[in-house]
Amino acid sequence: MKNIFLITKREYLTQVKKKSFVILTLLAPILMIGFGLLIAFMFKANESSSTFNVVDKSGLFVGNLQNSKAIKYVFVPAENERALTSTLKEMTGIEGLLIIPQLKDNNFDDLEKNSQLLINKKIGFDTQSSVASDLSKIIKKEKIKTLGISQDQLNNLDQNFKLNTQNVVDNNKGDSDLDFGVKSGLSMVLMYAVFMFIIIYGVRVMRSVLEEKNNRVVEIIISSVKPFELMMGKILGVTLVAVTQFSIWITMSVIGALFLNTGFSAMQQQIPGGEKSAEMMQKFDLQQTATEISHILLDLNFPLIIFVFIVFFLLGYIFYSSMYAAIGSAVDNETETQQFTLFAIIPLMVGMYGSFTIMNNPEGPLGFWLSIIPFTSPVAMIARIPFGVPAWQIALSMFLLLGSSLLMIYVAGKIYRVGILMYGNKATAKELWKWIRS
What pLDDT is attached to residue 368? Predict the structure, then answer.
């Protein structure tokens, strides 16, 4: 145990003292937010405004077809249709000509069938859909008029049924759309974090083992320590590095949520009452949403979420990093690792992509089994925990994962003990099985 502790301490301090670790730990959340903003900016930068001339022979759309930031409609007389059609190819600043025929006997089907949009350049699918949607809204109103239905009656018909739910077991109200969205978002973030870090840090262990093996440094090291102690020291050292990073990021996230809650609550209290208050509150929709999200996050059982997250990440990482350490010791170069790393990546991917179904049915059979089977539980249980998981399922999954991790450490230790000193001998499944049985 003393040697394992010394190796773990050395691995941990070596990683934590690196400038790259400090910079990545502090800047990673900012970089992630910045990356999201960059993606949003790229989508925004690709947006463009389109202008269409409109020949409305029906008379239904003049004054009713409203402009937007993305689309501008310019109505032109019907007698200019032929001239505009012939010169459309050479026109600049105009993306197309919308021709709407006459409406005969309130036959809206013929109106839709004979309407056409002539364009002189490629336009996006969103633009085409927006034009069709604008026309559909006006036609819908005209159809309503012909049926003799008033706008108030239509609004009454369009009202959605709001169902109030109450969980008699947990004595909690059902999740609203925003609650569900926040929990789904948190579930995906935690799930992806565990998935990426198990792979990233597992590969780091594998490369570290492979590098020491190729440099023959391990021959000197194992003269002082046992191969099993060296393997466990490396795994635990890198595990503590990952836990340290996660702890810092979780603390930053909680502080950020508290800041949003306090800051926006103070901002709302300073808004005066009355009608002006209602108008000003409408201008602060973004702040209100952020405040509601922070309230939802703070209402979650964060001690349990953090506990489950750390435990399953820790056990899941030990489980898979043992596998990666065994792979690194069994091969001579990184090219050969590709045929074995699939055994570690595929179960994680099954757990991650299978967990998407958990969003719609957290207590479904697939979500249950994915969060119980040790190969997928490090990812699937993390995805389920924001929605609430029975204590017995958490305990059972944790027990199975702990037992499987100990078994994987035992098997990996068998492979590591022999493979770390094997050179020039390509490992096969038969050879690995022989090492495990030895």
Answer: 87
